[in-house]
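ARCHIVE CARD
Drawer: 12
Card no.: 0347
Subject: one protein chain, sequence and derived structure
Cross-reference: see card 0346
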Amino acid sequence: MFFVRTASAQDLAKVSALLAETWHATYDVLYGADKVSEITARWHAVPALKARLERKEAEFVVADNGKELAGMGYAAMSKERPKTVLLHQLYVLPRYQRQGIGRDMFAELETCFPDANAMILEVDPRNDAAVAFYAAHGFVKVGEAKHTADDVSGVPLHVYEKPLGG
């Protein structure tokens, strides 16, 4: 059984490995294995994760069973939109998907921002599992965007939003 808790610096190497495995399983077919390896080497390296862990007005969670991490989630208050949380990451290892771990991490992240009135995210519309997950959890498509990161610049994204209680 996995429980959701706030991540610590000691988790970051495991989170980095979790993200690499999950990204390859999810995105190799979309971006190619080499591109995914390049992205994860930079975006999911321990120093990049440490910066997220230390960010104010953010929450970084992991799903832990005492032996391994099955998932991770990261959300932070938007710098552009007041009272809005941006869900940056929500990933579960493929072997643990569809067991409620993503739901549990998402439920925790939703409650971490009491002053927020909305949560937004961007998702590759070709990531059918993620799109279905977010739709099932109350998100609706509100727009479109494009990746601005150099590795995947120009890749279309869909923007989803969900009202929060705050």
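Annotation on reverse: The chain has five helices and seven strands. Residues 3-163 form a domain with the Aminopeptidase fold (CATH 3.40.630.30).
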